[in-house]
Amino acid sequence: MAEDEPPLNWFWWLVIIGLATLLGILIWSIKNPPKLQPDLFKVNYQDYQEPYVYQTAMPIAPVFRTYAVITAYNPVPSQTDSTPDITASGQKVRKGIVACPAWLKFGTIVEIDGKLYECQDRMNARYAWKSHFDILMFDYQQAREFGKQIKQVVIYN
């Protein structure tokens, strides 16, 4: 090194080492692409009759069946949040929506009492990880009469 050149200080050494590490990681990730995970929910397609969602021609397979507590709710601020006409997924309320536990993703189709519902809302935090579903009903009296029931729920992908 010439006398008029300043020495490389520790900061620049760290920058060089960091860039070399990032380059190494990039080259390694190109040579070793991620392997796809196997499907966690294998379904035997011979064990069921194909249901049709909303009278479409798209058959869907049941993922599993369980028993759950089923209640009903109305889209009013006292039973929801400050925006009762908007679901947790951001959609407008409509017939056929059910509030699901947090372990089900939005858009999941569930069957309760032979009727198909779409999971577009969430349960209160105290029920978030339990088997509890809340069916959206527009008629207050009908929701009161429905009450709290334990029913079989079929969950589709």
Q: Could you walk me through the main structural features you see in this protein, from its secondary elements to its overall organization?
A:
- There is one protein chain.
- The protein has 157 residues and is α/β, with parallel strands linked by helices.
- It has a domain at 53-156: Barwin-like endoglucanases.
- The protein has helices at 10-31, 140-146, and strands at 62-73, 97-100, 109-112, 115-122, 132-136, 149-156.
- Strands 1-5-2-4-3-6 form a six-stranded mixed β-barrel.
- It starts with 9 loop residues before the first helix and ends with a strand.
- 14% of the residues are buried.
- The model is unreliable at 37-58 (pLDDT under 50).
Mean pLDDT: 79
CATH architecture of the domain at 53-156: Beta Barrel
Portion of residues within helices = 10-25%
Give unreliable regions as ranges. Answer: 37-58
Overall shape: elongated
> Quick one: biggest sheet?
6 strands, mixed, barrel
Using DSSP, what is the number of strands? 6
> Radius of gyration over alpha carbons?
26 Å
Helix count, DSSP H or I runs of 4 or more residues: 2
Q: In a nutshell, what does this entry contain?
A:
This protein is α/β, with parallel strands linked by helices and 157 residues long. 18% of the residues lie in helices and 26% in strands.
Quick tags:
6 strands, 2 helices, Barwin-like endoglucanases, single chain, 157 residues, alpha/beta
How are the secondary structure elements laid out?
Blueprint: H1 10-31, E1 62-73, E2 97-100, E3 109-112, E4 115-122, E5 132-136, H2 140-146, E6 149-156
Parallel strand pairs: 1-5, 2-4
Antiparallel strand pairs: 1-6, 2-5, 3-4, 3-6
